[in-house]
Design goal:
The complex is a heterodimer of chains A (303) and B (371). Chain A has 303 residues and is mostly helical. Chain A has one domain: ABC transporter involved in vitamin B12 uptake, BtuC, CATH 1.10.3470. Chain A has 12 helices and 2 strands. In chain A, a hairpin with a 2-residue loop joins strand 1 (134-137) and strand 2 (140-143). The radius of gyration of chain A is 19 Å and the shape is globular. The mean pLDDT of chain A is 86. With 371 residues, chain B is mainly α. Chain B has a domain at 31-262. Chain B has helices at residues 12-30, 33-58, 66-81, 95-112, 114-119, 122-142, 144-147, 180-204, 206-216, 218-223, 228-254, 264-277, 282-301, 319-337, 342-350, and strands at residues 153-154, 159-160, 163-164, 171-173, 176-178, 256-257. In chain B, the strands form 3 sheets. Chain B has a two-stranded antiparallel ribbon with strand order 1-6. In chain B, strands 2-3 form a two-stranded antiparallel sheet. In chain B, helix 2 packs across helix 12, helix 8 runs antiparallel to helix 11 and helix 12 (264-277) crosses helix 13 (282-301). Chain B is globular and about 60 Å long. Classes of the chains: A mainly alpha (303), B mainly alpha (371).
């Protein structure tokens, strides 16, 4: 019976880690969805916001302590988001959603190249208070950083949902997602809604990035953008314009990735590293069945 | 299409094309190996970029995975034409058959994307194509027997009947010895010219009209009797064929293929090439490809004489980084202010404007409806 218990614990650990990882993906995907709802742009620069936030957090916290560093990272990423909207996207002559999305890809290249250059071959430690400590309960071992990530993500997600439901900004976001022209006509300040959405999306990405760079990951490295890439499927999986979709999609991708990471060793040489792919495999499977994602609005068009 | 045909200024475009061709054919007689290498790289990417220009620019199918098709062509050619060694297996086919097989199999790969591509629109497709990039790079890294893993594998030299494109034999033409680079230059030039002409014909024909229409409005196109999924699939197949051809060329000139050449960055660079070239422009894709692929090589060569780079220490600005800044900046400026891209410069030189296709009832702008 001993091996059976071992199997169960291992699986539970994988799921728990997955939920925590998934909550981070949800956070990233949510920022993504907010930006998409407010401006109709698929933000390919999201991974650069995440990397910028984590990078600033790591460098500032080395000197001034973790909390100041975290604040600086979040502000930087939010500023980068607002900058992208206010300076780049707003003045683009090509206003089509596809054109603007590809434009955000350009921003991503510039920002990631610059941060990668600054990081070089180093791995920047985060100086986070929980470091590499782990938490044990009934034979299950989970890093404290993962618990913290889950708690913070849950708090942020709840906070956002409250904002979204009960404030004027939330109302404005809902209206502008429903119909941009009507929203502008009834007096929604579209410009302000746009850039605040970009800033909030950036801030969320920075927080998620900080946790993704923490234990068990070694620290801030350029490859952090790969984790951000796995949040794209999370957003698309749930439906690009759906907030519950982002939450469910993030959790699904997180759990799938964590479970695969636990068992990929049994898949032979081809399996190792498969956890990095599973997000996209899940995405393909879902999109084949539901092209607008799980909760996305079905597009009805008139010609 | 009752729009009157625009008169071309007779001869100017043709004269320019012929002039460029003559210069290109004469080049290997005069320049050294470095410039041949730059030109060959540019040609390989130009062939691939033409395919992406058709897929993204003409058909409106956003793809962030074009380097996958290049990689598929390069690796399949090496696998089909290479010999088995201790590390990697190869089928040892004759090189011409291997090149053909690589292109055909990659076209099949393009067709395999169609269940997904047919169901997705615009941005969703862009994200799904990211998946292809990651899956492909996983395959290239882990299928060691076929790909040689992270270290890559050797590429067999090309032989077409009596023509040997390796360094084993040297042709002497007009007292100039033709080594591998010079021979491949001629081959690349022929392939590029052929690829360009075929692309022009495809885009100008009925099929091209259908692709344009699908870009401007899928539903409108369907209502006009265009089988949208079939044209989407054909856009992918065309892109795959061009990508694979470019990939085989790139493999031949480097002699060794590694996974990094065909990752996410490479795919993004290809997209930058077609955007800088002017989205939807076949002729613009070529200068776009030349610019993006040649820039890092040129900067690396001139590294000593350019300030800012070539330092040592933590924050060096390497040639790769500097050129990325330059072409990414140009990419942003192109989308923001000059969506015509380099195509407009070509048009100025040639003296014609690119005829804008107007779809009856639709907007002339790009992606007016979808996305």
């Amino acid at each position: 019976m001993k091996w059976k218990k071992h199997l169960v614990t291992r699986f539970l650990e994988a799921v728990l880690n997955g939920v925590s990882l998934g909550s981070l993906y949800s956070l990233i995907a949510l920022g993504f969805v907010i930006i998409f709802r407010a401006t109709g742009v698929m933000n390919f620069a999201h991974s650069s916001f995440l990397l910028a936030g984590a990078y600033v957090t790591a460098t500032v916290s080395a000197k001034s302590g973790f909390l100041v560093g975290l604040l600086a990272g979040v502000v930087t990423a939010a500023a980068l988001g607002a900058f992208t909207q206010l300076v780049i996207l707003r003045f683009s002559k090509d206003k089509s959603h596809l054109g603007l999305s590809v434009l955000s890809l350009g921003v991503n290249i510039l920002a990631v190249t610059e941060i990668t250059r600054r990081i070089g071959d180093n791995t920047l430690p985060l100086h986070d208070p929980w470091a590499a400590s782990v938490w044990q309960f009934a034979g299950i071992t989970v890093p404290v950083s993962r618990i913290a990530a889950l708690a913070v993500a849950a708090a942020l997600l709840t906070g956002f949902l409250l904002l979204f439901r009960f404030t004027r900004w939330g109302l404005a976001l809902r209206v502008s997602a429903a119909d941009r022209e009507v929203a502008a006509l009834v007096g929604v300040p579209m410009g302000r809604v746009s850039w605040t959405s970009w800033a909030i999306g950036g801030a969320m990405a920075a927080l998620a990035g900080m946790f993704l760079a923490g234990f068990p990951a070694p620290g801030v490295e350029p490859s952090l953008t790969n984790s951000a890439m796995r949040a794209f499927p999370a957003a698309v999986l749930g439906g690009l314009d759906s907030i519950p979709g982002a939450l469910v999609g993030g959790l699904a991708i997180g759990i799938a990735e964590s479970v695969t990471a636990t068992y990929e060793g049994h898949l032979g040489g081809f399996g190792s590293g498969a956890s990095g792919l599973v997000a996209y495999v899940v995405l393909f499977a879902v999109l084949l069945l539901r092209p607008d994602g799980l909760f996305g609005t079905k597009v009805v068009s008139r010609v | 299409m009752s729009e009157p045909r625009r008169r071309r200024l007779p001869g100017r475009g043709q004269a320019l094309t012929v002039g460029l061709l003559v210069v290109a054919v004469a080049t290997p007689f005069y320049v050294g190996p470095f410039w041949l290498q730059v030109g060959l790289t540019a040609m390989a990417y130009a062939v691939a970029a033409i395919g992406l220009a058709i897929q993204v620019g003409v058909a409106g199918q956003l793809s962030l995975a074009h380097a996958v098709f290049m990689g598929s062509g390069a690796y399949l050619y090496s696998f089909l034409g290479g010999a088995s060694t201790g590390q990697v297996t190869g089928l040892g086919w004759p090189p011409w058959l291997a090149a053909l097989g690589a292109i055909v199999l990659t076209a099949l790969l393009g067709a395999l994307c169609s269940p997904i591509s047919a169901r997705l629109r615009g941005l969703y497709l862009g994200v799904a194509s990211l998946g292809l990039v990651f899956i492909a790079s996983h395959v290239m890294q882990r299928f060691g027997a076929l790909t040689g893993g992270p270290g890559g594998r050797e590429v067999p030299p090309l032989r077409l009947g009596p023509l040997d494109f390796s360094d084993d034999t040297t042709w002497v033409i007009a007292n100039v010895p033709f080594h591998q680079a010079e021979k491949l230059w001629m081959l690349g030039l022929a392939v590029l010219a052929g690829a360009y002409l075929v692309a022009r014909r495809m885009v100008a024909g009925r099929g091209g009209l259908a692709l344009h229409m699908m870009r401007d409005s899928e539903i409108g196109a369907a209502a006009m009797g265009i089988t949208v999924w079939r044209y989407k699939a054909s856009a992918f197949v065309i892109a795959a064929v061009y990508g694979a051809t470019g990939g085989v060329l790139l493999a031949l000139l480097t002699g060794w293929v590694v996974p990094e050449s065909f990752g996410f960055d490479a795919s993004v660079n290809l997209l930058i090439m077609v955007v800088i070239g002017g989205l939807g422009s076949i002729r613009g894709a070529i200068p776009g490809a030349v610019f993006v692929s040649a820039l890092p090589l040129l900067i690396a060569r001139q590294a000593q004489s350019i300030p800012l780079i070539s330092g040592t220490g933590d924050s060096i600005l390497g040639p790769g980084t500097l050129s990325t800044f330059l072409y990414a900046g140009l990419f942003i400026v192109t989308i923001m202010f000059a969506s015509g891209g380099l195509d407009r410069l070509v048009a100025l030189a040639v003296g014609t404007r690119r005829p804008q296709r107007r779809i009856a009832g639709g907007l002339p702008g790009k992606y007016a409806q979808e996305g």
